[in-house]
């Protein structure tokens, strides 16, 4: 099957920002440590995989997605990126485009949604997808032939790997996160229901909807604190349904249809000027030139 690589760009920009020493500056003296680290990461992906079809998705903002509109506390626990990092995000997108790679970004939909919608569209064209990210949310997208790749740990897994990690199947991941919560995104989940209990409940009932419809059965399950769990589910049923709207990756984000838009371009003219602006060293420049040569 033809393969498309879909990269969670924002994750790797943040990782570069935290891991790279603050000793890289562009021609105007602005810090570009995250840009240098992100560029090295992207070069490694391209050199190791030589993908024919790929895209990098970025979050436009922490505060403007449709999830913020329905739940204002969504991601409210995160600090907004400082101006220096915001500027570097723009430059990371420019580096991505200079490598001939499709950039996905939207103010209403997050990177997860853009990747999910692209994967869903590609599947209809007979493609398998490799999602480059460590984010557990992406488990819900993996079909029979798809794969997730945690680049930093060089770990890869398919649908069976989702079950090994979370104890639920891909189609249950959004329900699972709605029940036990996701601290990273400030989604509290149902009080008193942790990861193991959420997995056990979904193993028995299959879906969140079936669980809430048959909540009276929960008290009779062989679960520690089953009666209390049933009471909490009754009390927080509406909240659980709301949380699932947050944890479910959208498959209808606005993307360009077709797979041709994901074909890597060669000989991009903006590369040399960008190398000068960012003061890339000879090694990085040679890697970038090799990757864009026709």
TrEMBL record:
A Pfam cross-reference name: 5_3_exonuc_N
Lineage top rank: taxon: Bacteria
Keywords: DNA-binding, Hydrolase, Nuclease
Domain named 5'-3' exonuclease: residues: 1-265
Membrane-traversing stretches: none
Protein name, per record: Exodeoxyribonuclease IX
Organism: Dyella humi
Keyword check for Nuclease: yes
């Amino acid at each position: 099957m033809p393969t498309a690589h879909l990269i969670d760009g924002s994750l790797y920009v943040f990782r570069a920002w935290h891991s790279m020493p603050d000793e890289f500056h562009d021609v105007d003296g602005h810090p570009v440590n995250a840009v240098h680290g992100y560029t090295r990461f992207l070069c490694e992906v391209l050199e190791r995989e030589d993908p024919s079809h790929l895209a990098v998705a970025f979050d436009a903002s922490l505060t403007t997605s449709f999830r913020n509109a329905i739940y204002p506390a969504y991601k409210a626990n995160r600090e907004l990126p400082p101006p220096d990092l915001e500027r570097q995000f723009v430059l990371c997108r420019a580096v991505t485009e200079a490598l001939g790679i499709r950039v996905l970004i939207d103010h209403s939909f997050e990177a997860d949604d853009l990747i999910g919608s692209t994967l869903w569209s590609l599947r209809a064209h007979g493609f398998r997808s490799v999602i480059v990210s460590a984010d557990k949310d992406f488990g819900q997208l993996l079909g029979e032939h798809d794969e997730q790749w945690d680049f930093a740990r060089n770990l890869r897994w398919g649908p069976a790997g989702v079950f090994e990690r979370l104890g639920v199947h891909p189609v249950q991941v959004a329900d699972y996160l709605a029940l036990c919560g996701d601290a990273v995104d400030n989604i509290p989940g149902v009080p008193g229901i942790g990861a193991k209990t959420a997995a056990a409940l979904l193993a028995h009932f299959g879906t969140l909807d079936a669980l809430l419809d048959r909540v009276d059965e929960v008290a009779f399950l062989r679960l520690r604190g089953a009666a209390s769990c049933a009471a909490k589910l009754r009390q927080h049923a509406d909240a659980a349904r709301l949380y699932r709207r947050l944890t479910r990756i959208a498959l209808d984000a606005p993307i360009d249809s077709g797979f041709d838009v994901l074909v890597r371009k060669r000989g991009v003219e903006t590369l040399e000027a960008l190398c000068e602006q960012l003061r890339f060293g000879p090694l990085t420049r040679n890697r970038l030139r090799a990757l864009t040569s026709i």
